[in-house]
Amino acid sequence: MSQTKASAPASSAWVKAAIAFMAIVALWNVTKLPFFMSFGNDGNVSYNSRGVELSINLGHWVKGYRSVKMRSPPCNFFLVHSALGVTILFMMILSLINQTWRKRYCKPFFWFAIIEGIHAIPASLANDAGFKPLFLFACALLLGTGFWGLETNKRYFENEARAEKHLSIQYTVVTVVNSFAAFLEVPQIISAFKSKTADGTFHSLGDEPHKVFGHTLYDALPEKVGMTIFLGFTIAVWFIWPLLLLDLKKPRQNEENDTVSEATRLL
């Protein structure tokens, strides 16, 4: 009994730490969205002429900051990819706040993961820095876990305890994949500022865009396509959907198809 009581605060602390980490990653990527949207049209010719860079937000905030050059376009890839990734992270956060939401909204969660996995395949194939196998594996994880999750939801009531365990694993895998970019970007940021501290300048990565930039599969379509998809997705999923989910009725004590009550919190 004492071990159960002792483990509860520790578990709660880990959940809070996970939520904080995911919120930081999501918000960090949200700050990049305006720069992706305005790339090539914001009058910053000197920066834009070098192509899209990994930490495009820092490139605009910190004078002289440079980061790894990207191969894919800002709207057709990064805007759409970021919208899906940020949505997935916040849905994971909500599932940790209230466990009943994990089952209830798992269909859109897994479909977003599947679409994200498919959408990222051309970018993964375009990588020439040795990460192609890793990125393709990440796409495979999103696809495989997404379809597995949909199957788990379909068979949920055959064995609810097992299904809940599987949903927990599936949500975690999809979330880890979506957070993986942070583990690649943070060392780059640290290295850049170390260079600035040591030499007084940020190390240069060249003044030309990456050689693949402008020649990916995403570039077969005009950038306004990605912009339109991004705006449509965010308006529908980030604004309209939450409004439709608002329940103005008196809260019920239990849901007929939920394994835990609506009041159940994981924090």
List the helices and strands and how they pair.
Blueprint lengths: L1 H29 L2 H6 L6 H4 L7 H6 L12 H24 L2 H5 L1 H21 L5 H23 L5 H40 L23 H23 L22
Helix pairs in contact: 1-5, 5-7, 5-9, 5-10, 7-8, 8-9
Describe the fold and architecture:
Helix 5 runs antiparallel to helix 7, helix 5 packs parallel to helix 10 and helix 8 packs antiparallel against helix 9. It is built from 10 helices and no strands. The two termini are 20 Å apart. With 267 residues, the chain is mainly alpha-helical. The N terminus and C terminus are likely disordered. The longest helix is centred in the C-terminal third of the chain and has 40 residues. Helix content is 68%, strand content 0%.
Give a brief outline of the structure.
The chain has 267 residues and is mainly alpha-helical. It has helices at 2-30, 33-38, 45-48, 56-61, 74-97, 100-104, 106-126, 132-154, 160-199, 223-245. Residues 1-8 and 259-267 have low confidence and may be disordered.
Q: What is the strand content?
A: under 5%
Characterize the largest beta sheet: strand count, sense, and whether it forms a barrel: none
Terminal Cα separation, in Å?
20 Å
Q: Please tally the helical runs, counting DSSP H or I stretches of 4 or more residues.
A: 10
Rg computed from alpha carbons, rounded to a whole number of angstroms: 21 Å
Which regions contain 5 or more consecutive residues with pLDDT less than 50?
1-8, 259-267
Quote the average pLDDT. 88
Helix share of residues? 55-70%
Quaternary class: single chain
Number of β-strand runs? 0
* Main structural class: mainly alpha
The secondary-structure element order is: HHHHHHHHHH
| Shape designation | globular
